[in-house]
Design brief:
single chain, DHBP_synth_RibB-like_a/b_dom, DHBP synthase, twelve-stranded mixed sheet, globular, 244 residues, L-threonylcarbamoyladenylate synthase, Sua5-like_dom, alpha/beta, cell membrane
Length: 244
């Protein structure tokens, strides 16, 4: 049986797509966050796994997440299944730059506001466009969008060329996770686990991103306080948005 190292990441996932190599998963790939050392190669490997229909675990700027390609029905369904998540509960998407937001959402806010919020530990909720996969969050006209302050995950989204469906790496309703060992029960269902080390140590760091609804013009509503609510509210008020 061939291994990842013997054939290389790109060839490995190509072989999986063509059923040329038996899958032995999960692979745990260590990465160094905050550096670009081997970062592009590892991000490309993550993108290859996603393009092959996989679901992967990734570090973000807040907690660990699991990701799949948002535009692929089978991948989205696998993600919901791994999370044991109700389709009533929406999943955010992750894009690599602000320009991508306008393809998937009707972001009727000043561009300068988006530039202040992103990249960062914020999930901004807007009305979705018709281009976004209807299988993702089928029971709402809204979508949450993330551009994490994490170079690795942004590069993964860039190499994929389409949004990632991104949610916390835990079974729905369980605690968020700050290390890969905290979601070890999910490993058998994942294609690759990218290990960025410990992302924090305290319960306060498990709160995830701040989720803010910007779908109503001129106003905002905090859906989840998260880890950046104070800074986020300050920015929104600077742009004269009123809290609902």
């Amino acid at each position: 049986m061939f291994t990842w190292k013997q054939v290389g990441a790109r060839a490995y996932w190509t072989a999986i797509r063509t059923k040329g190599i038996p899958r032995v998963m999960p692979r745990i790939i260590p990465i160094k966050l905050g550096t670009v050392q081997n970062g592009f190669c590892v991000a490309q490997s993550a993108a290859d796994a996603l393009k092959a229909g996989g679901v992967i675990a990734v570090p973000t700027d807040t907690i660990y997440g699991i990701a799949a390609l948002a535009q692929r029905n089978e991948s989205v369904e696998k993600l919901y299944g791994i999370k044991k998540r109700s389709y009533e509960k929406p999943i955010a998407i992750c894009v690599h730059e602000i320009a991508e937001i306008h393809r998937w959402a009707e972001a009727n806010v000043p561009e300068q506001l988006l530039q202040r919020l992103f990249p960062g530990a914020v999930t901004a909720v807007f009305h979705r466009t018709k281009d976004l996969n209807p299988t993702l969050n089928p029971n709402t006209s809204l979508v949450g969008i993330r551009i994490p302050n994490c170079h690795f995950i942004r590069q993964v989204a860039r190499y994929c060329g389409e949004p990632l469906a991104l949610t916390s790496a835990n079974v729905s309703s369980m605690n968020s996770t700050l290390s890969i060992h905290e979601f070890q029960e999910l490993w058998p269902q994942l294609d690759v686990v990218f290990d960025g080390g410990e992302l924090g140590s305290g319960d306060a760091e498990r709160t995830g991103s701040t989720v803010v609804d910007l779908s109503i013009s001129g106003s905002y509503r905090i859906i989840r306080e998260g880890c950046a609510s104070v800074e986020t509210k300050k920015i929104l008020q600077e742009f004269h948005l009123k809290e609902l």
